[in-house]
Design brief:
heterodimer; A: 262 residues; mainly alpha; MetI-like fold; 10 helices; 81% helix; flat; B: 247 residues; alpha/beta; Rossmann fold; 2 domains; six-stranded mixed beta sheet; three-stranded antiparallel beta sheet; 38% helix; globular
């Protein structure tokens, strides 16, 4: 059921054309108006900076990604355990939900100084991982708690009819039923973990983490705006890659859940 | 008696009375059809017979254990993450039967519904009719004494539906469970059941009962006989009266 080639080419060509037009306008404007490069370098200079600094930028991107993924991992484990325990009883769930929402509405940037102190000033990477975990936590918990309640009523009746216990129903029915919600929660969380890692790194403001945000701070302090934008470009690409990877993983994992024509 | 409702009334908080008073006694091995206007409480009556709900007042009595009761819904209600065999295996697994016995009984149940080759297929790969057969196999795998069917063929196309309806008799013949099935299709009710219970509008009460005096499985061309057509007329007339009474 593949779509025609022309339509799939359009998916790529249309946004690419827009990007080229925007960059072209930017380039022409910067050159025509004689904007100083420390204020706004042309895209060609940014591209040159990306190529020039690529080895450093890739290492930094890897550092950021690693911290974000570790944060995602800790968030996933904690959120899943809490969701499963909360799933055992509706009062437990009622107790957990408002606290989880409170954590979610707290801006991560406001938590950063405190977490930095707790992590120890020599362990900026721990603070970054911790903050990435904090922002990744809510979508996973929320998805899992919603999913655990979204079980087919009739399947639940069957489990009851055949004498299934609470734990059997939780692990054999409610958890697998929740899989689409849980996977979607992880997809959102992965993107947020990268954002959280960058915010935390900026807030920490120390070179110990050696991530992309540090590269940006460093270039900014030296007024090397092209290098700063180069780091931003790599960060955007990283975010897009994480998004695409999670989308692919979701499609693979959930093949079976999409029940065919009835 | 295998299961019985006596003057059973079900009331849901905030929604008022959903059923009753309604009475029905199911004898071992008989096939009973329940017909009635949509939303009249047919499914509620079935859940009472299954022991999944208790009546607000009146009595629901069951002479079969839960393990000997099976339920089939309008949708196949399969677990999408499990293949056909694992879906059929569910009741045995929850009852913690030994593994070898389970495999044998699952294979047997799938053979009975004509899906021996589809054991490894996932629900997303099955047609509507096949998924419904898997659902039937899951109900049959425990060799139930009481089989409850809640509009099991309503979502299928005409031909698939007719074939499955004919299969029900064939499946019933070997172990002769009592079958209670809910439908809004009068032809289907008369074709399958030895008696058809007609319910009124919500809250559903006993409106009429029509006995179908014909052998099961039905002989060839049964749908063309006067007996079939007369019974369909009787049930339809009773349904119309039942709707008027409530209106």
């Amino acid at each position: 059921m593949k779509r025609p080639l022309a339509s799939r080419l359009g998916d790529i060509a249309a946004p690419l054309t827009l990007l080229l037009v925007l960059c072209g306008t930017w380039e022409a404007a910067v050159r025509g108006l004689n904007v100083p490069p420390y204020f706004l370098p042309p895209p060609s200079a940014v591209a040159a900076a990306v190529v020039d600094r690529l080895p450093t930028l890739l290492v930094s991107a890897w550092n950021t990604l690693e911290m974000a993924l570790l944060g995602l991992f800790f968030a996933s484990v904690t959120a899943m355990v809490i969701a499963l325990v909360a799933g055992l009883h509706h009062l437990l769930e009622k107790a957990v939900r408002p606290l989880a929402i409170a954590l979610q509405v707290t801006p991560v940037i406001a938590l950063a100084p405190m977490v930095s102190i707790w992590a120890g000033l020599d362990h900026a990477d721990r603070a970054v991982i911790g903050l990435a975990a904090v922002v990744a936590f809510f979508p996973i918990l929320s998805g899992a708690m919603t999913g655990l309640k979204a079980t087919d009523r009739d399947l639940e009746r069957l489990f009851r009819l055949y004498g299934a216990g609470t734990l059997q129903t939780l692990f054999r029915l409610r958890l697998p039923s929740a899989a689409p919600y849980i996977v979607q929660g992880h997809r959102v969380a992965a993107g947020l973990a990268v954002v959280g890692a960058v915010v935390a790194e900026l807030a920490a403001g120390s070179g110990a983490t050696q991530g992309l945000a540090w590269r940006m701070l460093e270039s900014s302090n030296r007024l090397r705006t092209a290098e700063m934008l180069a780091a931003l470009v790599v960060l955007v690409v990283l975010g897009l890659l994480v998004h695409a990877a999670m989308g692919l993983a979701e499609a693979q994992l959930l093949k079976r859940w999409r029940v065919g024509p009835r | 008696m295998i299961a019985a409702l006596r003057e059973a009334i079900v009331e849901y908080p905030g929604r008022g009375r959903a059923l009753g008073p309604f009475s029905l006694t199911v004898e071992p091995g008989e096939i009973v059809a329940i017909v009635g206007p949509s939303g009249c409480g047919k499914s509620t009556a079935l859940r009472l017979l299954a022991g999944l709900e208790q009546p607000t007042s009146g009595e629901a009595e069951r002479a079969v254990g839960r393990g000997k009761t099976a339920l089939v819904f309008q949708a196949p209600t399969l677990m999408p993450w499990a293949d056909a065999a694992a879906n059929v295996d569910l009741p045995l697994k929850l009852a913690e039967r030994p593994k070898g016995e389970r495999a044998e009984r699952v294979a047997h149940a799938l053979r009975r519904v004509g899906l021996a080759d589809a054991a490894k297929a996932f629900p997303s790969e099955l047609s509507g009719g096949m998924a419904m057969r898997v659902s039937l196999a899951r109900a049959l795998v425990t060799e139930p004494r009481l089989l409850l069917l809640d509009e099991p063929f309503a979502a299928l196309d005409g031909l698939t539906r007719r074939r499955l309806v004919e299969d029900v008799h064939r499946l019933w013949e070997s172990t002769k469970p009592a079958i209670v099935f809910v439908t809004h299709d009068v032809d289907e009710a008369v074709y399958l059941a030895s008696r058809v219970v007609v319910m009124t509008r919500v809250p559903g009460r006993n409106a009429a009962e029509v006995a179908i005096d014909a052998p099961a499985p039905r002989p060839q061309g049964f749908r063309a006989t006067a007996l079939f057509r007369d019974a369909v007329e009787d049930v339809t007339a009773a349904l119309e009266r039942a709707a008027e009474v409530a209106a």
